[in-house]
Amino acid sequence: ARPALLPRKTRTCRQKTLVLDLDETLVHSCLEAQPDADFTFPVHFNGQEHIIHVRQRPHLRAFMERVSQLF
């Protein structure tokens, strides 16, 4: 049995959980090199290392900071 990812809803736990779709909504990621990528990271798949190139939507950090205060 895996541990729960979300907190159990109880009378004392009234916080809401916000679930966001990252890929193609908040970020765009691809295997092809992107000169304007915001960051890259390695992924190991089928015995090979691939570099993922990620571009963030404008104002993503400000959005994430704000919603982290609310949820």
Descriptive notes:
The protein is an alpha+beta fold. Helix content is 15%, strand content 28%. A 3-stranded antiparallel sheet has the order 1-3-2, with no helix packed on it. β2 and β3 form a beta hairpin. The model has no long low-confidence stretch (mean pLDDT 88).
In brief:
15% of the residues lie in helices and 28% in strands.
Which structural traits does this protein have?
single chain, about 70 residues, alpha+beta, three-stranded antiparallel β-sheet, about 15% helix
Which strand-content bin applies to the residues? 25-35%
Low-confidence stretches: none
Helix-strand topology string: EEEH
Helix content: 10-25%
Query: What structural class do the secondary elements suggest?
Result: alpha+beta
Q: Number of helix segments?
A: 1
Give the integer mean of the pLDDT values.
88
Largest sheet: 3 strands, antiparallel
Radius of gyration using CA atoms only: 17 Å
Strand order of the largest sheet: 1-3-2
Number of strands: 3
What's the shape? flat
Q: In angstroms, what separates the terminal alpha carbons?
A: 26 Å
What is the element layout, followed by pairings?
Layout: E1 27-30, E2 39-45, E3 48-56, H1 60-70
Antiparallel strand pairs: 1-3, 2-3
